[in-house]
């Protein structure tokens, strides 16, 4: 059974930074490209970016490009999301997910974790 458990969320002031982690189990992590997404209250899930199986390639969507960075450690089965220069509009529940097919910029998703809350407020 695929299990994805996010951690590292919390409250931060505008301009601050957070590093989210996603611990993966129940599948061969290194054989899957992975993704991060977020969902704000009353809005649909927003795809933020993806990383290839080896971590060699990444794709980040416009709202977060240059501020967020996706990385992975296949030896530890952990996916990361480094978030810098956080803004109030970044407030959301952040989730990691598996990619089952497609390109990094337009993937088909498999399973998602439950997510971790990030709140950006002064």
Distance between the ends? 40 Å
Order of helices and strands: EEEEEEEEEEE
Total count of strands = 11
The poorly predicted ranges are: none
pLDDT averaged over residues = 97
Q: Biggest sheet, in brief?
A: 7 strands, mixed
Described by the principal axes of the CA atoms, the overall outline is globular
Classification by helices and strands = mainly beta
Share in β-strands: over 45%
Rg is: 13 Å
* Oligomeric organization of the protein chains: single chain
Helical content class: under 10%
Number of helices: 0
Give a quick set of tags describing it.
122 residues, mainly beta, seven-stranded mixed sheet, 11 strands
List the helices and strands and how they pair.
Blueprint: E1 3-7, E2 10-12, E3 18-25, E4 34-39, E5 46-51, E6 58-60, E7 68-73, E8 78-83, E9 92-103, E10 106-112, E11 116-120
Parallel strand pairs: 2-11
Antiparallel strand pairs: 1-3, 3-8, 4-5, 4-9, 5-6, 7-8, 9-10, 9-11
């Amino acid at each position: 059974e695929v299990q994805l458990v996010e951690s590292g969320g919390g409250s931060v002031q505008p301009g601050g930074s957070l590093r989210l982690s996603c611990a993966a189990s129940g599948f061969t992590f290194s054989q899957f490209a992975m993704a991060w997404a977020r969902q704000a209250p009353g809005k649909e899930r927003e795809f933020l970016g993806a990383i290839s199986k080896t971590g060699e390639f990444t794709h980040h969507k416009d709202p977060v490009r240059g501020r967020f960075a996706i990385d992975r450690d296949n030896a530890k089965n952990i996916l990361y999301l480094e978030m810098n220069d956080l803004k109030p509009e970044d407030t959301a529940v952040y989730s990691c997910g598996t990619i089952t097919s497609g390109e990094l910029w337009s993937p088909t998703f498999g399973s998602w974790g439950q997510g971790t809350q990030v709140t950006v407020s002064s």
